[in-house]
Design brief:
By secondary structure, the protein is mainly alpha-helical. It has one domain. It is built from 5 helices and no strands. The longest helix is centred in the first third of the chain and has 12 residues.
């Protein structure tokens, strides 16, 4: 599998983005040139087996990790706005 040259900082950021629920695989591909299968390969190689299994179970079918499965409002670049009010 051909992957671009990645620094330790890049690898750390890719892992962080992969764990984030709201970051789609397409964002990782756009920023680092790694498609979903390359991210899975990387995560499998860099993580402990139990951590990798837990991550895969969380990501499997998750709408927010796949841009094509996201609701239309999330695909158009809109960000979720919390309805929390800051107490004064």
């Amino acid at each position: 599998m051909s992957t671009p040259e990645l620094t330790e900082a890049d690898l750390s950021r890719i892992i962080e983005m992969a764990w984030e629920d709201r970051t789609p695989f397409e964002a990782i591909e756009q920023q680092f040139g790694l498609n979903e299968s390359a991210v899975v390969f990387l995560m499998r190689r860099l993580m402990k087996a139990g951590s990798f299994r837990m991550w895969r179970e969380r990501m499997r079918g998750r709408q927010t990790k796949h841009a094509v499965l996201r609701p239309e409002s999330m695909r158009s670049g809109e960000r979720h706005q919390a309805n929390h009010r800051i107490p004064r």
